[in-house]
Amino acid sequence: MRQFGLIGRKLGHSFSAKYFAEKFEREGLSSDCSYLLYELPEIERVEEFIASTPSLAGFNVTIPYKQQIIPYLDDLSDEARDIGAVNCVKILSDGRRVGYNTDVVGVRSSLESLLGDVAVESALILGTGGASQAVRYVLAERGIGYKIVSRDKERGDVTYDELTSEVVAASKLIVNCSPVGMYPAVEQAPVIDYGALSDGHFLFDLVYNPEITRFMEFGAAQGAHTLSGLDMLYAQAEAAWKIWNE
Fold first, then answer.
1. Which of 10, 18, 23, 66 is catalytic?
2. Tell me, what CATH number does 225's domain have?
3. If you compute the radius of gyration of the chain from its CA atoms, what whole number of angstroms results?
């Protein structure tokens, strides 16, 4: 049996195991494939995880290890190298580990769905982790300028305390790449001025559990168009499956 899985520090929020279990059942692969969740308290434990799973053919990577996984890999795809983050690892027949970034596939398809033909000139990216790097990559592809909002001034362009209502009003696309609002902390939302939003704004939340976050609710109340991370989850999962089977 081929083994697949997801590594991260805390995975109680993840839908990945359910998604792949249903996929394997639907496609008649349940007797040949399984997908499990592996919570690792620190990234160093990835070596133990791989060594103890001899049938491992590939795995996904989530918070907070999308950047930390890179030193444990033998090679990177061009996109993963450019982005500086990995969320998909393929184990080759000779044991070598190759890192890919399928988040970028999910971000592309999600923004196409959310924006359609609307031209957006400026965006705010909330958060600085591995998913944030994939979003930056896609925004650059689309020619959309952006500011990175972080709690740490050294890691972003502006802190949440420095983020003015005027900047929020002018930034028609706002992408939440932070885990704020993720299950179980579903009452939380990024601290921005939601009153500055309008029906000309587009809010994309990479969080998918819950499917409708407070961030999305607060935006929708101001007339903004919103999209959860569920479509992105599905798109990146299918892209990973394609990589594992190439």
1. 66
2. 3.40.50.720
3. 18
Structure-token match 């279990």, residue found: 21
What percentage of the chain reaches a pLDDT higher than 90?
95
For this structure, is 66 an active site residue? yes
Find the domain containing 50 and state its range. Answer: 2-101
Q: Encoding tokens for residue 141?
A: 């592809």
Indicate if the pLDDT at residue 13 is higher than 90.
no
Alpha-carbon separation of residue 142 from 122, 138, 148, 175 (angstroms): 11, 6, 17, 15
Q: What is the C-alpha to C-alpha distance for residues 208 and 74, in angstroms, rounded to an integer?
A: 31
From the list 135, 32, 22, the residue with the least C-alpha distance to 87 is 135
pLDDT (tens digit per residue) in 20-77: 999 999 999 999 999 999 999 999 999 999 999 999 999 999 999 999 999 999 999 9
Task: Please indicate, yes or no, whether residues 97 and 171 belong to a single structural domain of this protein.
Answer: no
